[in-house]
């Protein structure tokens, strides 16, 4: 299993595509890709005001709230959806027009995006307060630590994740991982096709 541990302090900060705020890039493929030519991308964004989302042609997106009281999204073709930190991750096309209205103050969100026709993805928010086993099927699979401290062990792998760290498992398909600790994390699985 090939693994890379991406520490929170090393994540890259950059302007939003529409210039309306700042995004923190956690992982991107290919590694040197920009906002217009990535195959997949995982990032966080601070949203401090109401307004439109950036449009990403040919991209599918899943959004999760990490911090704050949430927001309401008006998504073209889907209507209005309210998201908060307890909501399930929300998938929608990143090339649909989306307007966001904050519920009560700024939020921080987690974005997972894949290029339609080449890649797909799934995102699950998970909680741990004991030892558990997890089988990842993505190639890659990413474990993004939201809160707490999580120990990850597997074939020739041992890592400790603290808040906003991300473990990228390049060849995780059907590999069993042993997790321990107390915290909340996101399992992001990316697949070709």
TrEMBL record:
<dbReference type="InterPro" id="IPR014710">
    <property type="entry name" value="RmlC-like_jellyroll"/>
</dbReference>
<dbReference type="InterPro" id="IPR011051">
    <property type="entry name" value="RmlC_Cupin_sf"/>
</dbReference>
<protein>
    <submittedName>
        <fullName>HutD-family protein</fullName>
    </submittedName>
</protein>
<dbReference type="InterPro" id="IPR010282">
    <property type="entry name" value="Uncharacterised_HutD/Ves"/>
</dbReference>
<dbReference type="Pfam" id="PF05962">
    <property type="entry name" value="HutD"/>
</dbReference>
């Amino acid at each position: 299993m090939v693994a890379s541990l991406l520490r929170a302090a090393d994540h890259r900060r950059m302007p939003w595509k529409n210039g309306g705020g700042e995004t923190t890039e956690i992982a991107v493929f290919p590694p040197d890709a920009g906002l217009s030519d990535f195959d997949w991308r995982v990032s966080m964004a601070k949203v401090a005001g109401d307004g439109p989302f950036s449009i990403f042609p040919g991209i599918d997106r899943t959004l999760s709230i990490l911090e704050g009281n949430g927001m309401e999204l008006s998504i073209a073709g889907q209507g209005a959806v309210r998201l908060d930190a307890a909501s399930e991750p929300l998938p929608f096309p990143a090339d649909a027009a989306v307007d966001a209205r904050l519920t009560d103050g700024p939020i921080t969100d987690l974005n997972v995006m894949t290029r339609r026709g080449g890649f797909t993805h799934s995102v699950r928010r998970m909680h741990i307060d004991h030892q558990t086993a997890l089988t990842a099927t993505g190639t890659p699979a990413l474990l993004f630590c939201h809160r707490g401290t999580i120990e990850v062990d597997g074939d020739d792998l041992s890592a400790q994740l603290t808040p906003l760290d991300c473990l990228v498992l390049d060849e995780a398909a059907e590999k069993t991982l042993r997790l321990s600790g107390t915290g909340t994390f996101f399992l992001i699985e990316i697949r070709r096709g």
